[in-house]
Amino acid sequence: MKTSERKTKTFIYEGLGFPVTLVNTPLRKVFGEWVIDIDMTRLQLVVLRALAFKSGRLTKHELQFIRKFLNLTTAKFGRIFGVTHAAVIQWENGKRQLTPSTEFCIRLHVLGHLRAKAAEFRDLYNAVPLEVLAKEKIRTAAHLEIDISQNFKVA
Question: Per-residue pLDDT for 12 more than 80?
Fold first, then answer.
């Protein structure tokens, strides 16, 4: 590793609208500043998959990230899940909570967008049962944790 490169044990990245804890993150010195040195498109895809499998409820910021990543307006997003654009805006403003079943459908939609294999849909069903989502409260303090060394392996 060059002197202008290093790794940090953990790094809190907030560039997606919510905090994501990045573990084993490579850094590079650019114009005298240390910046994360990862493929940001790949990071967004890894975060999107992690949100689908997140054990807790999705936050309003995570939901907005999903919608924007999928390049959907609030109206189109709402039509996909059988609600109005106003309902989507209320979800994203935190004025209305997603039902557990709608949240699960959003997670399934994310996996479909990522072209997940059938086994991954089964894994989601087993990892995040609806009855668990129904009992969960939305916690904004919980960070997603992404291990860069595991999710960014060079093939």
Answer: yes
How far, in Å, CA of 55 to CA of 50, rounded?
9
Please report how many Cα atoms fall inside a 13 Å half-sphere around the Cα of residue 3, on the Cβ side: 1
> Total structural domains in the chain?
1
Q: Are 136 and 57 in contact (CB under 8 A)?
A: yes
- Per the structure block, which two tokens stand in for 118? 């059938």
Judge whether residue 73 has pLDDT over 90: yes
How many C-beta atoms surround the C-beta of residue 66 within 10 A?
A: 21
> Exposed, middle or buried, 142 (CB in 10 Å: 0-12/13-18/19+)?
middle
- Provide the phi-psi class of 24: left if phi over 0, else alpha when psi is between -120 and 50, else beta: left
| Containing structural domain, residue 31 | 5-151
Q: What is the pTM of this model?
A: 0.87
Each residue's pLDDT tens digit, 113-123: 999 999 999 99
